[in-house]
Design goal:
This protein is mainly α. It contains four helices and no strands. It is found in: Membrane.
Length: 103
Amino acid sequence: RMVMGDLLRFVCIYLVFVMGFSQAYYIIFLSFDNPNTPEGVDDSVSNPMPSPMESIMAMFLMSLTSFSDYYGAFDRTDHEIEAKLLFVIYMIIVAILLVNMLI
C-alpha cells in the first residue's frame, strides 16, 4: 500500500515534467528543417516531434532509452542552444526523479 502511494506520487511528478518539457520541445521543433527534404515539401514527415502527442512519447522514450536521434535533430532547428540546454536540464531532473524513486 505504501509502495503504491509512493509510485503514484512519482508518476504524477514525472508526468508534470514530461508534459512540460514535451510541449517546449514541440514548440522548438516547429522550426525543424531537414536539409534532405526538397524545397517546398513539408518537413513534418521527417520531424521527430510533429505533434504534441508525438513529443510526449518522444520525451518519455528520451528519458528511458536512446536519445541520440533527437539530440542530433537539435542542430536542424532555429533554437539549437535552447534545445540542448533544455535537454541537459530535463535529463538531470529525470535522473534525480529516478534515483529518488529507488530510495
